[in-house]
Each structure stands twice: as structure tokens, then as C-alpha cells.
From TrEMBL:
Keywords, sorted A to Z: Cytoplasm, FAD, Flavoprotein, NAD, Nucleotide-binding, Oxidoreductase, Redox-active center
GO terms assigned for molecular function: dihydrolipoyl dehydrogenase (NADH) activity; flavin adenine dinucleotide binding
Disulphide bonds in the chain: 49-54
Domain Pyridine nucleotide-disulphide oxidoreductase dimerisation: 356-465
Transmembrane segments annotated in the record for this chain: none
Residues making up the signal peptide according to the UniProt record: none
Active site: residue positions: 454 (proton acceptor)
Additional note from the record: The active site is a redox-active disulfide bond.
Organism: Candidatus Kinetoplastidibacterium stringomonadis TCC290E
Location(s), subcellular: Cytoplasm
GO process annotations (BP): 2-oxoglutarate metabolic process
Protein name: Dihydrolipoyl dehydrogenase
Reactions catalysed: N(6)-[(R)-dihydrolipoyl]-L-lysyl-[protein] + NAD(+) = N(6)-[(R)-lipoyl]-L-lysyl-[protein] + NADH + H(+)
Residues annotated to bind FAD: 58, 122, 153-155, 322, 328-331
């Protein structure tokens, strides 16, 4: 007889494992199914984020930042380092350790919250009076029944047409995290988050990096003032970023790759690289769900159709995270996981898409929430802007990192904060205050009147808010 659960979650990435935990907290019997394995064949829950995305990339970014600081900036602090060398295998090994710690942490949370975990692929096999039949392709080929099913199977890297990933020369985010030597020349197709972060890692470690971006302007999803500053800084650091690129062909020849393209002046160019990272977006991972058997509605791009509450067209079947509409962000997925568990329990789960922050973990970091200037102009909204440079912030000076600025945009008549955009040190942490203010529909005056500890980087947000009213105190 198949074991029955109140809720079964297919996928243990940020959306799935968080949904499972919240459901258990609310008194449900919960199972979670996930197929990800580490190089030893052991269960490795956490999805793309933990295994080949957010977590390992941040580990490599931190290590490469330490290396660059030691090689270029320690002397500014009176620290002399002689005969500096890079142990790449140790650097990669540390990243793997960080990943494993997160995998083990999730397994511990499952045990702590009495969640039954199955290591294998989960798919629909039918419907019964008690709910949905789920087949698990694992060592025991288990079958379970769930009253509610939450699909959280995540996404995978999009391949460049006609150029499959081999993870040796042509790399996805996975292969980009496992390069076993520093390439002399590294190409990156796509100037988004993954491309910039991975390009930054390998540039710091010694690669000559060229980023080819199809869009006519750099970082078009960011505020244009932030994007221009970022372009200037990254170029100065050594990244060769080309925008408005139209790729004609990519050829893999022996142990190198040749890219033929036209630049933004329609001039023909050719680039030869040792490794190529392709970061042109991600596609939902839904093809193994056996969705046609039960009539689950999936569009031609692989996304599962859901309503505003993440309900699919099937009763008691939900979908969250990268397999549904909205930004493919781990924190968005987590919020949907909590919201769906609460909705199943009869509560009113909440996800506000207008206050989901975006972060790029380069150096300097880039973070924003809300709308940017170009969006507000397009909307015909009247607004005021306040900016404050980290150059005028005492803590930034002490850190030796005064790059960038904070920008606050507020409605002209109501002073409600419409967007906050940051490029500079610890932008990923500073943006949380802006998210909180916007979630409560606060004003720039609210930020300006809040006491911020001194000296802190967060004072720059206060000063930018003061600058909206042209009364910045330190600039």
C-alpha cells in the first residue's frame, strides 16, 4: 500500500525545501522528492542554488576577491605579501565544502521537521480518491499518494542554439564553477548576473575575459545611471564588455573556440578563447513530470501555468519557483514556497513582486528594488531623486572601498519610495532596508529620519534619502 501524505513537494531547491518545512510547521505530513546527487552519488538537496548556483558562486567570488586584495590592495594597508601564489585546487575544494555543508544542512532540517525525504525523480502516475499518485524513480521505485502536490523542479541553463554544453570547453554555470586551471582567454556570452559574476571570478584569478552581450546597452534591467557606472568600473578592472553583439557562428576546434560576430557598429570581429561560458538565461525543468498523463498545463516554453496564488489547472496541484512566471531568483522561490504552504493550510500567503530585490555579487556589488528612472519616465510618473557617493562615507573610506553610490527615487507628491538602486560595497546587505521601507510604503523622509549607526555603510542610504529633499549632510 502506498504511503499517504498531506503534501508532497517535487524538488528540494529553495522553493521546494522551504515549502516542505513551512508545511510541516503548519501540521501537515510532508514528503520531499529530489534527484540531485553529489560526485559520490549521495543526496544533495538544495537545487541549482546550492549545488551549482548561488552558494558555490559566492564561495568562488569570495576566494577570488581575497586573491585580488592580497595581490593588489594589501600593500595599501601596510601588509606586504611576498611570493603570492594561487592554489586553484584548494580554492575549488573549499567551494565544494561549502556546498556540502549546505546540502547536509537541508537534510538536517528535513529530519528536524519530520519531513520524509526521497532521493530520486518524482513524476505523476495518476489520480486516486486520496489524491495524486506520485512515482519515485529511486532505488526502491517507491509510490506515494499526496492530497496536495507542489512542483518545484527548478530550471536549467539555456544552451546557445547548435552549441551543446560539454562542460569542458563550452560551459554552463555548472562547468564555470569547476574549471581546473585558469584559462588564458575566457569568453562569456551574456552580460547578465551569471556572466558578470563568473567573468569576475576568473578575471581576478588571471584570465583575460571578454563578455559578449546582445542587448544594445549594458545591464538594461538596472537603472541606467547604475549601469553606466558599472560599465565604467568593470572596464577599468579589465573586463572587456561588448554590447549590441550579433553572433554569426561559434566553432569548437580542438582545444579552443572561435566566435565570429558583428559588433554594435556592424563590423565583423572574431574572438578565440580557451573556454566559453554561455549564460543566456535559464529554462524551466519540467519535462520529467509526466504532465501529459494528468493534463497539467505547460506552455510551449516549459513553464507551468498558474494563477496569482500559484495554483495550476489541476485541483490541489501547485507550482512555484523557476517553473512559473516571475523572476528566476532563489528568494522569490522561497517566498512562494512559504505562501503556498500557508494557502494550503487555509491562511493568506503573501508575495509582493514589486519588492523583490535583485543583486549582482560582483565587486562592487549591485542591488536594487522597485522601479528605475527609465521605467518611471515611461510610466509618466513624477519623481525626485537623491544620490550619495560612498566616497563621502567614513566607513567606506576605512574599508578602502569607496566605489559607487546609493540612489533613492521617491514620488514627487507623496514622497513614497519608488525604487532604491545601489552600486558599491555590501550593496546586497544594504538593499534590505530599502525593501522593508517599500513593503510598508514608506517615504524617503522615513529613511532620512531613522537613526543609523555611525560609522556604517548604511548611512549612505540615509544620506541619499536626505538628498531627495536636497539636504544631504555629508556631501
Amino acid at each position: 500500500m502506498s504511503k499517504q501524505f498531506d503534501m508532497v513537494v517535487i524538488g528540494a531547491g529553495p522553493a521546494g525545501y522551504i515549502a516542505a518545512i513551512r508545511a510541516s510547521q503548519l501540521g501537515m505530513s510532508v514528503a520531499c522528492i529530489d534527484a540531485w546527487s553529489n560526485n559520490l552519488g549521495e543526496a544533495a538537496p538544495g537545487g541549482t542554488c546550492t549545488n551549482v548556483g548561488c552558494i558555490p558562486s559566492k564561495a568562488l567570488l569570495q576566494s577570488s576577491e581575497h586573491f585580488e586584495q592580497a595581490s593588489k590592495h594589501f600593500k595599501d594597508h601596510g601588509i606586504d605579501v611576498g611570493n603570492l601564489s594561487l592554489n586553484l585546487s584548494k580554492l575549488i575544494s573549499r567551494k565544494e565544502t561549502v556546498v556540502k555543508q549546505n546540502n547536509e544542512g537541508i537534510l538536517y532540517l528535513f529530519k528536524k521537521n519530520n519531513i520524509t525525504f526521497f532521493h530520486g525523480f518524482g513524476s505523476f502516475s495518476g489520480q486516486t480518491e486520496g489524491g495524486w499518485c506520485i512515482k519515485i524513480n529511486d532505488s526502491a521505485n517507491a509510490n506515494i499518494i499526496a492530497k496536495h502536490v507542489v512542483i518545484a523542479t527548478g530550471s536549467s541553463a539555456r544552451e546557445f542554439p547548435g552549441l551543446p554544453f560539454d562542460e569542458k570547453l563550452v560551459l554552463s554555470n555548472d562547468g564555470a564553477l569547476r574549471i581546473n586551471h585558469v584559462p588564458k582567454k575566457l569568453g562569456v556570452i551574456g552580460g547578465g548576473v551569471i556572466g558578470l559574476e563568473m567573468g569576475s571570478v576568473w578575471r581576478r584569478l588571471g584570465s583575460s575575459v571578454t563578455v559578449l552581450e546582445a542587448m544594445p546597452n549594458f545591464l538594461m534591467s538596472a537603472d541606467s545611471q547604475i549601469a553606466k557606472e558599472a560599465m565604467k568600473i568593470f572596464t577599468k578592472q579589465g573586463l572587456d564588455i561588448q554590447v549590441g553583439v550579433n553572433i554569426d557562428s561559434i566553432k569548437v576546434i580542438d582545444d579552443y573556440i572561435t566566435i565570429s560576430y558583428k559588433d554594435n557598429k556592424d563590423e565583423h570581429k572574431e574572438l578565440t578563447v580557451d573556454k566559453l561560458i554561455v549564460s543566456i538565461g535559464r529554462v524551466p525543468y519540467t519535462d520529467k513530470l509526466n504532465s501529459s498523463l494528468v493534463g497539467l498545463k505547460v506552455d510551449d516554453k516549459g513553464f507551468i501555468s498558474v494563477d496569482a496564488d500559484c495554483r495550476t489547472n489541476l485541483p490541489n496541484v501547485w507550482a512555484i519557483g523557476d517553473v512559473v512566471r516571475g523572476p528566476m531568483l532563489a528568494h522569490k522561490a522561497e517566498e512562494e514556497g512559504v505562501a503556498v504552504a500557508e494557502r494550503i493550510a487555509g491562511q493568506h500567503g503573501h508575495v509582493n513582486f514589486d519588492t523583490i530585490p535583485s543583486v549582482i555579487y560582483t565587486s562592487p556589488e549591485i542591488a536594487w528594488v522597485g522601479k528605475n528612472e527609465q521605467q518611471l519616465k515611461q510610466d509618466g510618473r513624477d519623481f525626485r531623486v537623491g544620490t550619495f557617493p560612498f566616497l563621502a562615507n567614513g566607513r567606506a573610506r576605512a574599508l578602502g572601498d569607496t566605489t559607487g553610490f546609493v540612489k533613492v527615487i521617491a514620488d514627487t507628491s507623496t514622497d513614497e519610495v519608488l525604487g532604491v538602486h545601489i552600486i558599491g560595497p555590501m550593496a546586497s546587505e544594504l538593499i534590505s532596508e530599502a525593501v522593508t521601507i517599500m513593503e510598508f510604503r514608506g517615504s524617503s523622509e522615513d529613511i532620512a529620519r531613522i537613526c543609523h549607526a555611525h560609522p556604517t555603510l548604511s548611512e549612505s542610504l540615509k544620506e541619499a534619502a536626505l538628498a531627495v529633499d536636497k539636504r544631504s549632510l555629508n556631501f
